[in-house]
Design a protein that fits this description.
Elements: E1 2-8, E2 18-19, E3 24-31, E4 33-38, E5 41-46, E6 50-53, E7 59-63, E8 67-74, H1 79-87, H2 95-98, E9 104-105
Antiparallel strand pairs: 1-8, 2-9, 3-6, 3-8, 4-5, 4-7
């Protein structure tokens, strides 16, 4: 399992719709408001709310302003490496193919 805390100081655009073939995700909103699209369902969550994204389910999650979330990914696989490369500017060509067990665009 990989656990992390994600925070934003302002509203953020959602990432592209994607899914994790072999990983479940669990979120708890600690502060602020978070918008989601999980499958075909759009919903807004507030501080204290929890939600799950089962493996293989297309989803998007974005902050609607300043927000903070606890985030768990089961099993971790190489997700930490995905984040390090993605946010370190090292994604490049072939990135998604290399990490296809962790993330796929829908």
């Amino acid at each position: 399992m990989l656990e992390l805390e994600a925070s934003s100081t302002q509203a953020t655009p959602p990432p592209p719709a994607h899914f994790h073939p072999r990983q479940d995700e669990r979120f708890e909103v600690l502060e602020g408001t978070v918008w989601t699209r999980i499958g075909d369902v759009e919903r807004t969550y507030e501080a204290g709310d929890r939600f799950d994204v089962p493996a293989g389910t297309s989803h998007q999650v974005s902050a609607q302003g300043a927000a903070r979330m606890h985030w768990e990914i089961h099993p971790a696989l190489r997700t930490a490496e995905v984040f390090e490369r993605l946010y370190g500017g090292q994604s490049g060509e072939g990135f998604l193919e290399e990490f296809a067990d962790e993330i796929r665009l829908t």
